[in-house]
Write a structure and sequence with these properties.
The complex is a heterodimer of chains A (about 250) and B (about 250). By secondary structure, chain A is mainly alpha-helical. Chain A has 8 helices and no strands. Chain B has one domain. Classes of the chains: A mainly alpha (about 250), B mainly alpha (about 250). Chains A and B meet through helix 5 and helix 6 of A and helix 7, helix 8 and helix 9 of B.
Amino acid sequence: MWKTFVAWFHRMGSPKWFYEITGRWIPWFAAAAVLLITVGTTWGLAFAPADYQQGNSFRIIYIHVPAAILAQSIFFAMAIAGGIGLIWKMKVADMVAKSCAPIGATMTFIALFTGAVWGKPTWGAWWVWDARLTSMLILLFLYFGVIALQSAFDSKQSAARASAILSLVGVVNIPIIKYSVDWWNTLHQPATFKLTEKPAMPPEMWMPLLVMVIGFYCFFAVVLMMRTRNEILEREKRTQWVQGLLSEKG
Amino acid sequence: MANDANPQLAHEKQRVVRREDGVRTSSWRAFTGTLKRDLLLVFRRRSDIVNPLLFFTIAVTLFPLGISPESDFLAQIAAGVLWVAALLATLLSLDSLFQQDMADGSLEQLVISPHPLAVMVLSKVLVHWLVTGLPLTLLAPLLGVMMFLPDDGFGILFLSLLLGTPTLSLVGAIGAALTVGLRRTGVLMTLLILPLYIPVLIFGTGSVIAAVNGMAVAGHLAIMGAMFMTALVLAPLAAGAALRISLNG
């Protein structure tokens, strides 16, 4: 078991092997993503019961919550990939980490945007200095920092290592930021914007949400693999196998 | 050697590295050596000490001019303004941490020396704090008077800056190390470092506000101490690794 894992891990380090295996995986993940997101959206938007307090406006959570979960998971994925790249000097890990950043930033933006759209009818304001909103905003800044650092270096290797360090530092900081923002919020938050305690969601409401979350993860996997493959082709364009691939496609 | 008989140096014995030419060195000596050299360099370019303080003063002055000079209003925002201005002054002074050494090549000498890079980074950060964080902390109460900070806030303002500015210097060293090899560093470093400064700002300002309102502050100071300790242990390692990358790129 361990040996197969190690062998798999080493083979993952080869850009060519990664390119080939993900080429076979992408259709499956893409099909799963389309299916799950279609089912989840239809179920959530059309069939789930309306909230007794918020009416239909609560339905935005079927986009908002998966995006917010992804935004945080992607940062961790980016830091883990960056750490693997730093420790084992694995080129593919560097490329995966680089591909994570824009997707994560987009997910964070979607979460913030849908939150603002939901906040207008619910809280009566587009933006509220709520603890969760604020920590998501800071997460977005962290993503921008990683992307900016990526593009600041001329050498791709240095860019990858520098942003790996920054994302590892960011991972140590995310819990600290989250707790300090929570604490700050309890001190400053005016009571008018306090969210009324929601009852635990009935299954008809959280089942579509679960489907959406899994669908979003599949979508992330597809986009991540596509971006990484693109990155591989660009960096390995001088190698024989990429040249062969290009002449094959005409 | 006469030093061998000295009991004070006995603990150094195991970690002593004997160079090929027979000169004895150790991590502690590397630390003090860097410290002395950097302090001497700062002493010879004294404007590096004064500039962040001037920035701090001017930035604080802008708030009464830009918002309102009323004492009641200024008293409310004093803690936040002083902390934000101190934070920005630290941030803008971070350039001096490694830039000069990068330009004259001494940074490469530090990196190829046999001692842990983190030790020497820590020594550089200590110098940075001594010439920016500490003066800012000493100046802050004076500006507090100009901002009508209530009397109960002064002690905690001083204490919170004393605990918080070393954290700012340590975390800032990571950003300075990541960007030292690049051509245009200023804005990029700000972008990298400011999000990481937010927790220090929250607890720094929070402690002063709590003190002004007559609430307990020990918890805030304890958390700031914990953040300082975490940064003290981890930041030099991260900054050291970042320096190696910057020198290769």
